[in-house]
Design a protein that fits this description.
Helices cover about 65% and strands about 0% of the residues. With about 575 residues, the chain is mainly alpha-helical. Among the domains are: about 160 residues; about 150 residues; about 90 residues. α5 runs antiparallel to α6 and α11 runs antiparallel to α12. The chain starts with a strand and ends with a helix. It comes from Sus scrofa. Pfam families: ARMH3_C. Its main location: membrane.
Length: about 575
């Protein structure tokens, strides 16, 4: 008996004497790509189409194979397909709804991909027609909102979110995606909040919901009034905010876990044994191999939450002994090749786990601790542009936290002590700190440790000037709070002073190279201002008189660095006046 294979929409028999047969759905797609209305010869054409399993590969490939002129000739049929997809979303039969959602994904992606190479048509006109666009998008968004809010199939909700993510991410620049104007008018904000506030829905769809919200918030955020920004800024429902925080914490924790697993695997391998034998000569190369893909989408969501909603600040400090939120779906969603641009969803092993274990050394954890650990990993390597931007976003989030009065209150609270195991870059001149020796301290100590670690480990040829400026700003804002509230923090300030002086020495020793690219005097002035702050107001926030003695000792011991900085400034100033 002849075997049947399914390839590219063909049902191909092993007998060479017969022509290969096509799937019925493929034949129906071919009719749509003709210039005539397919429903003329078959009145039930559209009803039958959505009962057929969608062939995404064939449909997208067919759209890709057409040039701009050919696509314009079948515009009416594409408009008709788009409209019938929206109508099918209101059907009671779930198969029709699923197939309609998948077909919409393929249409949106296919038409946008074609527009990248051929700009001879407008996306909105090609998909639905200018005259019907407003009504079509209104009906589409209402249908998606109803499906997301209903107590129906989790698979359908998952596909709805995938479709929305597909719609949002088809363009490289989200602000150039004109279809999103209709998403702004017909808001699904409440549906997203409902998912985040309801634990079962959050476990299934929380990640996609948070990423979708973060992307929508960024649509033309500086050009016009974005309703999602306004609504997110006034959310005060505790369950919703906690839900968002849990989703973000889980995604960051998963990254931290993957990195730690790779690090342990690397340390126990042959290469680790070899580097120990030769005195860790290649320790930097070993470190570079420990690479886990970062998650900028969830980091963006954290930034928007912290930046826009002051109520979210309270979520940062809330303990979460049970961090696993994603469980195995009861009804797996139909597979649709929809991957939002720039997102990295949690891996399948996390999705299948009920609970992620906390670090053995930490009795309780919270979102801020998880974020600090994540930042300590991401900020280690800023040589490539991707990680440089990720590290910058981490520092921007820390700046927002350091500016907030309430955040500073719990950062400096002596009653909220944690043991935060930050990841440190392997370096030849220092040993790896033992995790068990870490003391329990206020969270601000971990923030300062992270800033000191960055200062010490990034004095290199490709100097990350912007990151250093933001790092010093974070330290300055924390000191301003301590001065204002007279908080005497028991911290090893000498490490910070030493790091700042070494940074000054680096700037001066590489003056010629750095001045060609950066205004190093801005950074030098910020460092000097920090020392002036310690000298002038240190009696209000340094813990003991001996700390003041250590400060003066360090300044006197390294006075040559400050003298050289003064000389460099005077020399450059005189050169400008000539």
């Amino acid at each position: 008996m002849a075997q049947v294979e399914k390839r590219g929409g063909l049902l191909r028999k092993s007998s060479a004497s017969k022509k290969p047969l096509k799937e019925k759905v493929v034949l129906m797609y071919d009719e749509i790509f003709m210039t005539e209305d397919p429903s003329k010869c078959s009145p039930r054409f559209w009803e039958e189409l959505f009962l057929m399993k969608v062939n995404l590969e064939y449909l997208e490939g067919k759209l890709e194979s057409l040039d701009g002129e050919e696509l314009m000739k079948i515009k009416d049929n594409i408009n008709c397909l788009f409209q019938h997809c929206i109508q099918a979303l209101g059907e009671e039969h779930p198969i029709r709804v699923v197939n309609a959602l998948q077909t919409l994904c393929a249409l949106i992606r296919g038409v946008h991909q074609k527009n990248k190479s051929t700009s001879g048509f407008d996306i909105i006109n090609m998909l639905m027609g200018f005259d019907k666009a407003e009504l079509c998008m209104k009906n589409l968004m209402e249908s998606l909102d109803s499906l997301l809010c209903a107590e129906g199939s989790e698979s359908l909700k998952s596909l709805c979110l995938k479709l929305l993510l597909c719609l949002v991410t088809v363009t490289d620049n989200i602000s150039q995606n004109t279809i999103l104007e209709y998403v702004m008018i017909n808001s699904i904000f409440e549906a997203i909040l409902q998912i985040l506030s309801h634990p079962p829905s959050r476990r299934e769809h929380g990640y996609d919901a948070v990423v979708l919200l973060a992307l929508l918030v960024n649509y033309r955020k500086y050009e016009s009034v974005n309703p999602y920004i306004v609504k997110l800024s006034i959310v005060d429902d505790e369950a919703t905010l906690n839900g968002m925080g849990l989703v973000i914490a889980q995604a960051l924790s998963e990254y931290n876990r993957q990195y730690k697993d790779k690090e342990e695997e690397h340390q126990s391998g042959f290469f680790s044994a070899l580097t120990n034998m030769v005195g860790s000569m290649f320790i930097a190369d070993a470190h570079e191999k420990i690479s886990v893909q970062t998650n900028e989408a969830i980091l963006l969501a954290l930034y928007e939450a912290v930046h826009l909603n002051r109520n979210f600040i309270t979520v940062l400090a809330q303990s979460h002994p049970e961090i696993g939120m994603v469980t195995t779906p009861v009804n797996p969603a139909p597979t649709t090749p929809v991957t939002p641009l720039g997102t990295t969803p949690p891996s399948s092993d996390v999705i299948s786990s009920v609970e992620l274990p906390l670090d053995a050394d930490v009795q309780t954890s919270n979102l801020l601790i998880t974020f600090l650990k994540y930042s300590s990993i991401v900020m280690q390597d800023t040589k490539d542009e991707h990680r440089l931007h990720s590290g910058k976003l981490c520092l921007i989030i820390l700046t927002c936290i350091a500016e907030d009065q309430y955040a500073n209150a719990f950062l400096h609270d002596d009653n909220m002590n944690f043991r935060v195991n930050l990841h440190r870059m392997p370096m030849r001149h220092r040993k790896k700190a033992a995790d068990k020796n870490l003391p329990c301290r206020p969270l601000v100590c971990a923030v300062l440790d992270l800033m000191v670690e960055f200062i010490v480990t990034h004095m290199m040829k490709e100097f990350p000037m912007d990151l250093y400026v933001r790092c010093i700003q974070v330290v300055h804002k924390l000191l301003c709070y301590q001065k204002k509230c007279r908080v005497r923090l028991h911290y090893t300030w000498r490490e910070l002073w030493s790091a700042l002086i070494n940074l000054l020495k680096f700037l001066m020793s590489n003056e010629t190279v750095l001045l060609a690219k950066h205004n190093i005097f801005t950074l030098a002035l910020m460092i000097v201002n920090l020392f002036n702050m310690f000298i002038t107001y240190g009696d209000t926030f340094l813990p003991t008189p001996s700390s003041y003695d250590e400060l003066y000792y360090e300044i006197i011991r390294m006075h040559q660095s400050f003298d050289n900085l003064y000389s460099m400034g005077a020399r450059k100033s005189s050169m400008r006046t000539l």
